[in-house]
Amino acid sequence: MSKTxxxxxxxxxKQQKNITDQITSTIQSFEYYRTATNDELFSELCYCILTxxxxxxxxxxxxxxxxxSFSHATTEQITTHLRNHHYRFPNIRSQFIxxxxxxxxxxxxxxxxxxxxQRRQWLTTHIKGLGMKESSHFLRNIGYSDYAIIDTHIISLxxxxxxxxxxxxxxxxxxxxxxxxxxxxxxxxxLTLATLDLYLWYMKxxxxxK
Length: 210
Description:
Helix content: 55-70%
CATH class of the largest domain: Mainly Alpha
Structural class: mainly alpha
CATH architecture of the largest domain: Orthogonal Bundle
CATH superfamily of the largest domain: Hypothetical protein, domain 2
Low-confidence stretches: none
Number of strands: 0
Shape: globular
Radius of gyration: 17 Å
Number of domains: 2
Order of helices and strands: HHHHHHHHHHHH
CATH topology of the largest domain: Endonuclease III, domain 1
């Protein structure tokens, strides 16, 4: 397979109305967060902290059923909820969320005063538990469209189409290199990186999730 083959398959998916409508609806749902409160933004931040090496569906269920505010919950309340959902890393992730609460009242301010790569860099520097992928995931989910979410599904797909060689580890340098590859594909298919990610994720998993 090749990049040309991938571009052709993406264009084919774009012509399938049911898929395109679902992706368009998902992207539009992210725009909600442009007017969200700090509390709502922090909840989405916690979701992205939880998704590292865990299934998105499980983390969505955890987020949706949490009976407290992530902004004010105690470590014990978070840990108990994670254990009730058989979450893999209840102790360390609850600690990450608790430490992140220091930014619960000014998260939006930090996001808006930084731009581009600096916005993501602020997250990876200040929010324990957020790497390049999780920070990009969070920014995409709150309406920023110019960050690539490079997870194992995307890496595997790009490897299968001979666009990259599957790396053993993802350093920041490698992440940015793969992100540029995805940016080129986005331009050639007339998509944002955010929308391209949903198409690629659908190709690999058959799901359209946030």
